[in-house]
Description:
It contains 13 helices and 18 strands. By secondary structure, the chain is of the alpha+beta class. A hairpin with a 4-residue loop joins strand 1 and strand 2.
Amino acid sequence: MNKPSILRRIFQYDLGMIILLCVLLVAYLFTSYDVLSREEKQEAVRLTETYGAEMQTVLNQMERSAREMMLRQLDNMQMLKSPDETTRFYASQDIFLYLRDMMASEQIDGKCVIMADSDFDICLDNETAALNYWDRSALRSHALEMAGSGEAESAWQSGIFNEKMYLFRPYLFDRRAVITYIQARALMDMIPLVDDDLSFFLTDPSGTVIAAKEGNAASGGDQVAGYALREGAFYLSAQMGRRSVWGAVRGNMTAVLLMILVILGFSMLLARYMRRELYGPMHTISEDMEHIKRQEYDLRITDDFGTCEFTQLKDSFNQLMDEIVNLKINRYEQIIALQEMELKSIRLQLRPHFFLNAITTISSLERQNRNGEISAYVDALSKNIRYMFRSGLHTVPVKEEVKHVENYFSMQECVYPGCIFHLIDLPHELAEWAIPQMLIQTIIENEYKYAVSLDEVLTILIRVSMCEYEGETMLKITIEDDGKGYPADVLEAINSPEGRPSPDGNRVGLWSIRRTMELMYERQGLAQFSNITPHGCLNTIFVPRHPLHEYIPQKKETAEGGNAHEDPAG
Length: 570
């Protein structure tokens, strides 16, 4: 039975939803948004001009009051300079009564007029109810300070007194000042907040906000109108929130409500279908693939999907996993077989050289009638042969390798008496670190083959230590001598990634070390060979904590279940 296509179903639902959305957007946006946007901006401009004119009227009236006071109380102000204290007292009383009468008719709180004389420290003021004692004290101090500054008449300014922002206009003459103040907050309270998405800001010419009447447009709005107060001393600007027009569109929602409900119905139906036929199968497949990433290769997708596409995908995926597993197993088997063949080849190349050298040495000692040394040599040789026949793709503690290297030095002392001085530095705490067998001995054999002579003493230093290499803690083994060093062509061949031993078998030991490290740890650059100044060679081996591939010799049991023994052939 053919199953329906999920792609065709999705396309049909999407097409219907897109058509409805297009109708809704055209009907709603083009008939409402543009018109309402213009109307909102025009209304903001009108309100800004209206409120700005009212503020301008208040500031103008404050200026006129201050100038009238200066004209009508000029005589009394002059008498404040009289040396007679009584004269100054009555003049002050007249000025104070005038200020009181003048402020009695004010309709806006937060206003204050101050007359200050810095010579006699006289300060007369009257204010509306919004000012407290501390506000008056801060304003009086400011007025006395300006009176003593001797500056000429200045324009409208703004300042903070007792943590409140004020607008003020000073009139300065003859170390006297008449200053009219009004709180910026009181000025902005003249604006009723009729629209939550419209905010008004009072700023100075530099753009610093002095006071604000904030709606929802306090953050993230667009400036739509501005009004200059007192010849540009201050600016009243209106800012409209980006959601303002959308809020106005709510009145037209009834006309499109039915269409929205239809679209929602289609959307819910589509979502339900996609969840069952698309998201569900995809989620199942994704979870199964995560398990497969964790090397659970026996896992297969077994769910029964409702569409032909996912059913075909499931069958193809399971078939592909079967093929991958088979190929992976076959590939691993090929790699293991090749590595075993390569190691056997390396061992077969190394052992004939060793045995031929041993036979030649015994023959030479016999011709020289050194029978006692032959016995010692054969004893050391037997121990070395037993150790060598256990070698392969496995590790031994470094102390065991060093022990057999010492035995090898003893064996060679019979052939080269007094020609080698060796020193081994192995810290006790590193004695159990596992290293590939024959790692150090192969390099020492190479020393005897190419660097030792009967004419001079060769010094060999073996040092074992810990180090950080390529972001990992490793065992570092360095073997150096003071001989002639490696020929340049040998170094180039051994250190090259594609380097191979020469056809005549020269330097096969060094190549076997490098290849063994690559096979066991799957890393290059762990075995490094170089020369040192003024002469000599340096062999550096980095050994990670655990090998990735290691051949563990199998234990064989007797038919009676007796003692196990290890195959010496390894």
